[in-house]
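Appendix C. Worked example: TLC domain containing 3A
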Amino acid sequence: MLLTLACGSLFFPGLFALCTWGLRRARPAWTDSDCVMISTRLVSSVQAVLATGSGIVIIRSCNDVITDS
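Step 2, the predicted output written as structure tokens:
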């Protein structure tokens, strides 16, 4: 559990930094706030997709989600 927390603590800020850096290099005419805004939305979208996927896995693996039986 602690390893998952550590990986998430590195993955999402790293993805944000990578997206911001890539956008600044790919679109030099954009302002810093534009790059940060797009990077934030991209990281939020990735997080939402991963959360939805983990929810689907949990729902499909349990007969009764509330009691986990």
